[in-house]
Each structure stands twice: as C-alpha cells, then as structure tokens.
Amino acid sequence: MWNGISYFFKFGSSASGQANSTETAKAQRKHISSAGGNIPALTIENLLTVSPYTSRPHLLDLNTLTRSQSFFTKALTLLSPVTHAYATEPYIDSFNWDAVFSTLAEAVKDNAFEWTNQFFYVVVFRSQVPPSTDRSQLAELDKRAHMEAMRSGGLLKYWFGLPDDDGRNLATCIWRQREDAAPGSSGEGHKAAMRATIAMYSEWEIERLKLVVSDDVKTWEIVPWED
User: Fold this and answer.
1) 10-14, 95-99, 100-104, 126-130: which has the minimum mean pLDDT?
2) Exposed e or buried b per residue across 145-179, where buried means at least 16 C-beta atoms within 10 angstroms of its C-beta
3) Mean pLDDT across the chain, nearest whole number?
4) In what order do the strands lie in the sheet with 43-44?
5) Per-residue b/e over 104-122, b at no fewer than 16 CB within 10 Å?
6) CA 207 centroid distance within chain
C-alpha cells in the first residue's frame, strides 16, 4: 500500500485473465438482468465471484452492498480485455466497458430500478517483472492480500492479466468508494506484497481513476481521480 492505495500482485498464468466466451457472457447477462435481482449462477448463496479466486474467503457478500452497487458488481462479472496489449494501452481502451454498461442499463430497466448518478474508485497497477522471476511467491502474496481486502469490504472487482513477453502486466481493482481502499490495504499480506514489489519488480506504476455512471446509466466516463 502506498498513500492508502490498494492493489494486488498475481501475475502468473491463468485462464481467468482471458476474455469470457460469447455464450458465457450471454448466460451471465441473463442472470444479471433477471427479475427481482436474482443471484447469477456463479455465486454460492449470496456470495459472488469477483476475482480469479473462487474459494469462499475470496467471494463478495452481496448483502453488504446497496442495490445499485449490487447491479453494478454483477455487470462487472462480464469485464474482459479487448486487446492483448492491456499492459501498455490506455485503461479505458483495454476492456469491454460498453458491454458492461449496456448490461447494467438492461438490468436496471428490467427491474424498474431508478439508477442515480454515482461514481466508483478505480486503481490500476502496471508493472514489469523480469521474465525469469519465480512468480510462485508473488502468487501467494497476491492471494493473501486479496483475502484481506475481501474481509475488509468494498472491493467490487479484481482483475489481472498475463505478462507479455517483456514481463509487463496490468492488474486493476474497482472499489465501492475511495475510503474502502485504505483499510482494505492495511493488512500484513499487503505489507509483505509491498516489500516484494520493491525487491522483485523492475518497475511499477499506480494510476487512480474515477468511474462515473450517470442517471439511468445513460452515459459513463473514466477520468483521473482528484483528492
């Protein structure tokens, strides 16, 4: 954690970093927009999978969210990259945001829910690790840090990609609000991850953004965060 900013460190191979198939996306959209706000099939009870980690301590309890936050979090299960160069491309151009927000708009409409203008806190972590690095330690640190953040609350989405040939990668967290990120990144797991970053990464960069969704999900934008 630097300046209260939380991020995670897993950069190994994982199919979870790949884009969802068309059929999976269609199935998820059907569950997300179902009448009454039914929980998607990828949940256990009221717990939603919001990261590459699927064991119970890593799942998000939807009961901790407002209804609008719950709709948005479910729509974020569709988030996937639209380019293999996400580690170096602009963040806004790297993901299928239009699909996420069209799904959100459909869910809001289907459930006759009044969505009012609101914003969310986004952290983008770009890094480079030498290709020869043993990533097993980073994987364990990442998993521990993510578990701490889920226990603290407010983390709606965590995604990481696969390193390119130069060892560059991108990870991103979408938080309910800025205030959630600080306590979510204060545990021993995050402190250990910070030490690993200093020791093992050849370079890293943190970007803080504000994701704004207007009334009735008519428009959305991602802009630099200003304290």
Assistant:
1) 10-14
2) bbbbbbebebbbbbbbbbbbeebbbbbbbbbbebe
3) 80
4) 43-44, 47-48, 60-61
5) bbebbeebeeebeebbbbb
6) 14
Structure tokens at 57: 């301590």
Task: Report how far apart, in Å, the C-alpha atoms of 81 and of each of 66, 98, 159, 166 are.
Answer: 27, 12, 10, 19
What are the tokens at 199? 């020791």
Q: Is 182 exposed, middle or buried (0-12, 13-18, 19+ CB in 10 A)?
A: middle
The end-to-end CA distance of the chain, in Å, is 17
In terms of phi and psi (left: phi > 0; alpha: psi -120 to 50; beta: otherwise), the region of 3 is: left
The one-character DSSP state at 169 is E
Q: What angle do CA 4, 9, 12 make, to 5 degrees?
A: 165
Q: Which residues pair with 158 in a beta bridge?
A: 173
C-alpha to C-alpha distance for 200 and 114, rounded to whole angstroms: 47
pLDDT for position 186 = 59
CB atoms within 10 A of CB 140: 16
